[in-house]
Design brief:
The structure is a homohexamer.
Chain A (H helix, E strand, L loop, with lengths): L1 E6 L4 H14 L5 E6 L10 H16 L7 E4 L7 H7 L4 E3 H9 L6 E5 L4 H12 L5 E6 L13 H18 L3 E5 L1 H4 L2 H5 L6 E2 L1 H15 L22
Parallel strand pairs in A: 1-2, 1-3, 3-4, 5-6, 5-7, 7-8
Helix pairs in contact in A: 1-9, 2-3, 4-9
């Protein structure tokens, strides 16, 4: 099975880190192909960045030849996810969808830790759009260093998230935590050593859910929301 | 007061028709400047089209010089609205927001008529994202002819919508109708002659709400969701 | 355009202060006529007071001759608002509706500051009744001096509200604040100098929304909730 | 135990009919005292009528001497209910509250049949305000003859309601019906002979819930929403 | 009237204590018969215990001969409540249902205090299942000593709950408290001396609601959710 | 990987049919072990049956030796699911959870087809309990022949479900269907030939989700809802 792991931002170091996590999670026989949205934003850190990512992402993934068996969208956000589902004929799942989906049978209410305070409303909108509002106890943020200094989270972020998790347990009784940003994914292993609360790393969840969909022969419903767009592709611009 | 009326799609005939409606609704002293998203999709008829519109729209509006007093986004959808609010320092309102907002004090539950069955889930997501789920009785569709044949609705669409409104009253008790697509806006006057149910034409609503915001000195809150993006503009791509 | 600004309580000093705010917000050519509910309660500070206001308010406004172009109900509450909409044939909007309506496009979640702890449940009911529950982060209270000592808020209340806003940002991430009581409206200007969070002053919002409705030819839907009452007026008592 | 059964409208024939139903439902030793809101509207058939009822109702019940053991508000609506709870120091329950409350343990989702199509939005607002939205399958209406012709429902209304109940079962799967208007209460017995769906008659429910509260020593909480109004009674007007 | 007060756990001391509370709350002429689920769990302290209680409870109550006039299920939880309603032809009400039902007309938002932190999610699920989510401000826990040491709460638990109530008022503005576990019921009287917030003791509520149902001739609707199971009893196992 | 597929009812023919479906869906290397709840009900067709299944199910699965790598609960319902999660230290997922979870990224709103009209409220409660209310368009029923005549659905049920799906599309715009009962699972393949709407067969979904959880090292959170019950096992009865 060949999965494209598509990073909606243009930072190849994040694609590479996600691909390592994806390969560690994949079943035997699953091939992970990293893809970077080279014309996208450096990072999806705002609605403006989200709007910047969607168009080159949908174009790039529509043009993949040969088409993969499935696409995992490796950003914890929206950035054109529904448009990709319309354009492709294979399973498409974002890591945000996959993580929340797997959280549901495992907990009472999950919390999401995101990468900056300004991403809290963005993430709350995402939770609501997917319909998980009643299962989400809270969205909180840690503060990451600037992207150029450190694209990925490490031990110190793990400790900060662990402290935030203790506050979340005390204040909201959340009993599972999702890492809500790919820059955080690399600290998942370190974090698990610091807390008894289950920590979902979304890239791994995305791979597992995509594999499940491929194996079960599922793809986004073409009879409604995700039907192919009505006009020829060129009518939507380059 | 100078308002830019920004059409998220690339079809100038729609921009022109909306500008006529906008000028008819504007207060004395308000200047309406039409703007077409020339690199955008021919029409926003899918999530793919929505993803296609957002990037050129945010770039084009960020670069307006001199900046207008306010921007009215003249598409009944999402297509980067929040990104435009982050990027500009003036009031920004989409016609979908404006229409739903003005409907609230006028009715028990509004219905939205959109331009194609496949736009019903798109529009339901929009209603939910704005938090108006409890005030929206239903989203329904009429079928428009192809864009090239007739970019704008006319008398026959008005009659079809009038019939749909009667069905909506009987089935859902909606007591106000919003025209959920700019291609429908041109038939608002004809439609009002055919039904006792109030019909909101969103372009006019967008102008009125933008004027209100300018006069009251309001703009999107910069302390939370709509704060300016953190990176230099070029980090988000061209 | 002639707008009646109707104060549901009997305190003329509040009517006068609201009229000053209303005139400052009105467009050129809008005439603001203050109206005091002389048989109403001294202030709407309870459900009992709300019940006391509604009947004389609906009688007084129904009898206005000549009818105005629109009515702005200048109390942050319910007190017969729907009954006034049924009785009149012009736009009617309460300042609570108008403020929440204009807040929606400007923020992620608004907070409301009201005039006494006991008004928090009253205001929460109002938010729910209008369907804005998902957009309202919290309702909080400051404590005003007795009405006879100081009918209107001043600099010290502005400072207290500014402190409450900082708490609200930290605890609820609200990114816009509505002043939920006309006694608070007079401190809006002072408050804006003390906080970066946008502050909506509802009387100004009410004027702007009423002007928009008049210009667009809108009035409450007569086909459903706000249809004219079925019996002759005298059947409802004096 | 002495219960005042307070009819919010001015039609004594309705008070009398309700008192008969109340006495039939009361426990041994409960004394039912009918009370008519003589300055109220002929019937609560609109928001205007609701606003007309509230003020004389709160005045009249506050002045009852000696105070009863509890008050049952015998109208299926709002009309100042919360204000009466603030003003009195005994249990106060409206028949709408009592009926919905008793329906909860008895069914999956209840339906309400009201007295005219225009009362559907009024009743939906009432259901939402009490927080029963998820348990209410639908609100429907039958059409009653004019008040003067027939203040109370009889056999033909019972047959019409029975037909409506069959439609409700088929369309919404409601498994219990509440008669949402005191004019309908008199046909409850006839209706029960026509349908297998349980029918709640709200006056009886109100008596039973009030008796329960008196026996358990409960009254509306005075530490929050229903605390006594802060000003002297005369400050609220006659 | 003969009411069976059915304790879903196997601890007879709890049954006895509940029966005393029930008799104190009952109307004259009501006979309370305690029943202990002897094959059930020692206490319902987990979902596992809930699953352990349901089967012997439904068997035991189905076999009661002669059938009582009503059954009050004296545990603050689920444990087969709907199954008992299906199996019997008399009113069946759980004390959790009864307490929330009576709370609705008495307060703005109630809080529930339960018997251990781990019972908070269990209780939140119960509140949601009954549809009371919008009326419940919070679920909190006190910590009880082990069952064998002290099956029932006393003065020290009353003091601890009183402190928790003060925190709840300050943090959530809850204006009524329900004791969410029969082990807590015995401290209700002591607790009422310590707080101005109304305290609902659910066993008493259950008796009062059951009496109301018997008097009004109500029982769970047999046309939908609570219809008799379709197979012969023995098909469901011993 | 060794998965126990646990049928909550006592009908071995259903276990066998489910095991065939499970093996067809399983990844290479996954071993499916069928388990029948021999002391359970013949079928879970009511809340009484649900209550009958839970206790022997939790006992039987707790005693599995050696413990499997994961448990898939092969009934579309509740029947002690949370209790099994508390009792075991491996992933536990019900097929209802798994199907709804996988539906979320694939559609706008799913519908569930269940096995009898009386199971509609049961299934609606299940959807609500999992928090999927906003994503579920409707629950509908087909009528199955008696269990002894035909434990499993075949071609005629497939045709009936296909007709129901067309009604659902027209009336609710659901764009994906879940088969809500294991008796229906055997007709999934036949059904897919009759409709363009994606059909989720929950047993396959359960296997795929359980495999994902095992591979990712996930199990129900032990820090909250699903912590091990506090008392020794024998305190909960045999």
């Amino acid at each position: 099975m060949r999965l494209v792991l598509a990073n909606p931002n243009a930072t190849a170091a994040i694609t590479d880190a996600c691909a390592i996590l994806a390969r560690a999670a994949a079943a035997p026989g699953t091939d992970i192909v990293g893809w970077t949205n080279r014309d996208g934003p450096a990072v999806v850190d705002s609605f403006y960045a989200d709007a910047s990512a969607a168009r080159p992402l949908t174009r790039g993934l529509r043009g993949l030849a040969p088409p993969p068996d499935a696409v995992v969208l490796a950003g914890f956000g929206s950035y054109g996810t529904a448009g990709v589902k319309e354009a492709l004929e294979v399973p498409v799942v974002s890591i945000a969808e996959a993580a929340m989906v797997l959280a549901v049978p495992l907990c009472h209410r999950f919390a999401i830790v995101t990468t900056a305070p300004r991403m809290i409303p963005y993430t709350e909108d995402l939770v609501d759009a997917l319909g998980f509002g009643r299962r989400c106890a809270a969205v909180r943020a840690v503060t990451l260093p600037p992207l150029e200094a450190a694209p990925l989270a490490g031990a110190s972020e793990a400790r900060e998230i662990a402290r935030e998790i203790e506050r979340l347990r005390a204040e909201t009784r959340a009993d599972l935590v999702i890492l809500g940003g790919t820059r955080l994914s690399t600290c998942a292993a370190a974090l698990r050593a610091l807390t008894a609360v289950p920590v979902l790393e979304p890239v791994a969840c995305g791979v597992a859910v995509a594999e499940a969909m491929v194996r079960l022969g599922l793809r986004p419903s073409a009879v409604g929301k995700f039907a192919r767009p009505p006009l020829p592709w060129e009518a939507y611009g380059q």
